[in-house]
């Protein structure tokens, strides 16, 4: 799935030119010429997946820091985005540190290259708007790499919510915790990890944030925050809660959606989706029956097909460039997520609830 949400002002922008697609490319016989900039912890996986994706051909790679994971293969390691562009590209993947997203993406837009940028879209929302506008003005496909939308558990969850299996959605709760990853050096846990939770929550619920209140801590000696707890509201009164940190000695990636018929639990580490139904068996025990809430019902863990999320993400980007589908996360959505991220940081620094 990995698709955008049709939210007013979020997934679409009016008054801008139609996207310039490449309908005759992106097939096995005529693949898209793809460049990759950034050969670090994420870039190495993108290189592997691009090479394995039908209709895409990795023709150039760039990283001023070299190729420490040895993923370039027969390709020379180019020094910068301008050398990458000179290789002649149809599309590009940007996996450089967040602080460089704006400059690299703007150069690719100026060159007329369809581009996917790793999350977040830029180092701040103002920069994200400049990037999104540059691609929209030129009719180029601009995507943001929120790979969690391609996780099989969340895809199955979204499909079941769309089918009405939970009824009205009351709450979305996420927990994204684990040890500090050595790959991160330029942003804190909010822009690195919590941005996933904010994006997937709005996407799963099909509603935008209206307010957030948050707290962060700095416990490990780094300049940026390493722990966050946030609560908020989405349109329609849906309550949200996020627990995110780099200080837990085990890894956890859980999304719980509670509604009128029960609760879905999506584990994105394993790709499993479980449904806990509200109980429907009447109780004759007066002390229990007087409680006017829900009870435990049937529990189902679904058997769902599981593919690598990064592979689905690249296929969605390829198909958007070809003009055959619009399943990618748009840059407009990336900016909307960054607006919420910045509201979280503002709330934490000023100790107040921020309205969106």
Automatic annotation (TrEMBL):
InterPro entries with a match to the protein in the record: Gfo/Idh/MocA-like_OxRdtase_N, Gfo/Idh/MocA_Oxidoreductases, GFO_IDH_MocA-like_dom, NAD(P)-bd_dom_sf
* Example of a GO MF term: nucleotide binding
Tell me which residues make up the Gfo/Idh/MocA-like oxidoreductase N-terminal domain: 32-146
Q: Where is each GFO/IDH/MocA-like oxidoreductase domain found?
A: 155-264
Q: SUPFAM superfamilies from the xrefs?
A: Glyceraldehyde-3-phosphate dehydrogenase-like, C-terminal domain (SSF55347), NAD(P)-binding Rossmann-fold domains (SSF51735)
Designated name of the protein: Oxidoreductase, NAD-binding domain protein
Source organism per entry reads Actinomyces johnsonii F0542
Its lineage opens with: Bacteria, Bacillati, Actinomycetota, Actinomycetes, Actinomycetales
């Amino acid at each position: 799935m990995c698709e955008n949400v049709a939210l007013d002002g979020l997934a679409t922008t009016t008054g801008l030119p139609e996207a310039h697609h490449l309908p005759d490319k992106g097939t096995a016989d005529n693949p898209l010429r793809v460049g990759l900039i950034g050969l670090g912890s994420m870039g190495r996986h993108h290189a592997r997946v691009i090479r394995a994706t039908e209709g895409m051909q990795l023709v150039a790679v760039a990283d001023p820091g070299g190729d420490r994971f040895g993923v370039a293969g027969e390709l020379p390691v180019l020094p910068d985005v301008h050398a990458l562009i000179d290789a002649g590209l149809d599309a590009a993947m940007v996996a450089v540190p967040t602080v460089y997203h704006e400059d690299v993406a703007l150069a690719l837009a100026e060159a007329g290259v369809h581009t996917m940028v790793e999350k977040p879209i830029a180092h701040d929302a103002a920069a994200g708007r400049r990037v999104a506008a540059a691609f929209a003005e030129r009719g180029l496909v601009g995507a943001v790499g929120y790979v969690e939308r391609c996780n099989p558990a969340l895809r199955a969850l979204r499909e079941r919510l769309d089918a009405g299996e939970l009824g009205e959605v009351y709450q979305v709760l996420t927990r994204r915790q684990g040890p500090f990853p050595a790959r991160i050096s330029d942003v804190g846990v909010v822009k690195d990890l919590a941005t996933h939770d904010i994006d997937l929550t709005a996407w799963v619920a099909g509603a935008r944030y209206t307010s957030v209140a948050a707290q962060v801590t700095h416990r490990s000696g780094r300049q940026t925050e390493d722990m966050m707890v946030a609560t908020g509201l989405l349109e329609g009164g849906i309550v949200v809660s996020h627990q995110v940190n780099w200080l837990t000695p085990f890894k956890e990636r859980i999304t719980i959606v509670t509604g009128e018929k029960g609760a879905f639990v999506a584990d994105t580490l394993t790709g499993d989706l479980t449904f806990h139904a509200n109980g429907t068996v009447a109780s004759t025990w007066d002390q229990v029956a007087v409680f006017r809430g829900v009870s435990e019902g049937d529990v189902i863990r679904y058997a769902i097909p599981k593919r690598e999320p990064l592979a689905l993400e690249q296929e969605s980007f390829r198909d958007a460039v070809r003009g055959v589908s619009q399943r990618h996360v748009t840059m407009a959505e990336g900016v909307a997520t960054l607006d919420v991220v910045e509201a979280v940081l503002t709330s934490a620094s000023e100790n107040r609830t921020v309205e969106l």
